[in-house]
Write a structure and sequence with these properties.
The chain has about 160 residues and is α+β, with helices and mostly antiparallel strands. The chain is about 25% helix and about 30% strand. It has one domain: 2-Layer Sandwich (Alpha-Beta Plaits), CATH 3.30.70. It is built from 4 helices and 5 strands, in the order E-H-E-E-H-H-E-H-E. The protein starts with 8 loop residues before the first strand and ends in a 31-residue tail after the last strand.
């Protein structure tokens, strides 16, 4: 019997921000993840936003799959990863109408792998109303906002 995804779970994005172009990592991870965006976000700063190319059943499964792909990087790709300014596993959930809360958890083993890779975990909850995920409801940017790619270049995200 196939496990059901938790209500509202979308996927896990892997965001890598660097001063170097990240095409080599994008190519190396193409069997595991597809690129939602790869390119500049401003002068001299590049973003690679990836998402699992399978339908993971939950955040742990998606994060572990992405961790394994990063752990397998060698040579130049591994150096690009280690020199990145930011490495973020962003767990995406949709807020289901009628729900008053979203519960998200990751197993300790998953978090240990993320930490060992020098990355962080973020959680993004989207309103289930079709609003654009890059625009906060109050119109203000979060204090630690991730650079967003040009809106014409974004995929669906998560």
């Amino acid at each position: 019997m196939k496990s059901k995804a938790p209500p509202g779970f979308i996927n896990v994005d892997l965001d890598i921000v660097s001063r170097a172009k990240l095409g080599a990592i994008e190519a190396s991870l193409s069997q595991t993840a597809y690129s939602l965006y790869s390119g500049p976000v401003r002068k001299g700063i590049f973003l690679l936003r990836l998402e699992c190319n399978s339908d993971p059943k939950d955040a742990d499964t998606a994060t572990i799959k992405l961790c394994a792909a990063i752990e397998a990087l060698g040579g130049n790709e591994r150096r690009l990863w280690e020199r990145a300014l930011k490495r973020t596993f962003d767990v995406g959930y949709e807020i289901i109408p009628g729900c008053s809360a979203v519960h998200v958890s990751l197993r300790p083993e998953t978090l240990k792998r993320v930490i060992a890779l020098g990355a962080t975990v973020a959680f993004t909850c989207y309103l289930g109303d079709g609003s654009h995920p890059g625009v906060p409801i109050n119109g203000r940017q979060p204090i630690d906002s991730m650079p967003h790619p040009p809106s014409s270049a974004t995929g669906s995200g998560h």
